Amino acid sequence: MKAASPFVANKMETRYVDNDEDNYSDASSSLAPNGSVVSTVPDRHGFLGGTQYLNESKHMISANKTIERERKWLNMTANWDKQMIRSFKKVQNRCRKGIPQSIRPRAWLYLTKANKLLDQKKNLYFKLCDQPGDRKWIEDIRKDLHRQFPYHEMFVDQDGTGQKELFNVLKAYTILNPVIGYCQAQAPIAAFLLMHMPAEQAFWCFVAICDDYLSDYYSPGMETLIRDGNILFALLKEREPKIYKLLKKQSIDPIMYMTEWFLCAFTRTLPWPTLLRFWDIFLFDGVKTFFKMGLIMIKISLPEKSYSDLKKRFPTMCETLEALRNPPLHMLEEERIIKKLILLDIPEDTFKYYHMQQTSLRRKTKETKKIRETDVF
């Protein structure tokens, strides 16, 4: 994200673990002009190159352990509603351990309650696909199709099934929810879901995430995103006062570095194995997971022990924003970051307090603005 987010500047106004042991030799790969590995054989996640490409598995779980976890998840989803009532903590713990790759599509459907939407609105997705849609949204969607995971085997071909399905999912949503329509930041989320499940299932998961988990994030004005950015900043002041002081002194507003994180649900930020584990937790715990990951991202991007050290290493806004845009990849490694995410405890009362605080400030600001407008006349 540059000084002005591409989502803010261009669109808002218009509005990794699988445990196969696949290893590929150098003979099956080459270098792209930007230095990324481009393979003629996809890695175990379907990537042909780019920063998400993985040469080999770093974390392997035995076949017996994988089968055991799969069996437990199949049993849970067979009696999902009862499990969520009687064994809520058990389900949470299993999400934190990581959902088996083979079960992930089914588990995500149940976690988002998209399975119920799928049952209640049978064939609606295909009917929406058959409709022409609003020309303005159609043009915006088409411009963004090739930008979503361009090194993944699903989306590498402009005329391939992946880009066609992505177009249909995004178009169908604009018809289902014309008030929101389309936002550029929705595209990587839809593409991410399509990598894991059939288009109809991906669509209803997408609807659940946009309308429930990220409610109002894609509305004009970005009021909800700005509010949550301010909540993140308040949490930073509480947890990391030195970093907070630096950002405050340099007039770096949260919207300048957390927009892509929150709007794209970290799909453009985290390494693939970490992203998969993050989503397993996010779809259970909800958007508060964003704040926890946001705090972790800021901490590892600006890792100094004292305020004077921070000032020396990040003397201006330019250096600070560059660091926040490019966190060290080795610090985002799956086991390391997921452990930090689970251990970071932010009480629900704290979220409620800052939410009420920001809502109150927002209301006062609007009332003050109305008074000033009245005085003009």
Automatic annotation (TrEMBL):
Question: What InterPro entries does the database record attribute to this sequence?
Answer: Rab-GAP-TBC_dom, Rab-GAP_TBC_sf, Rab_GAP_TBC_domain
The protein in question is named: Rab-GAP TBC domain-containing protein
| Domain Rab-GAP TBC span(s) in chain numbering | 98-286
GO cellular component terms, semicolon-separated: plasma membrane
Q: Which domain of life is it from?
A: Eukaryota
**Keyword vocabulary terms for this entry:** GTPase activation
Task: Please list the GO terms describing molecular function.
Answer: GTPase activator activity; small GTPase binding
Q: Which organism is the protein's source?
A: Acyrthosiphon pisum
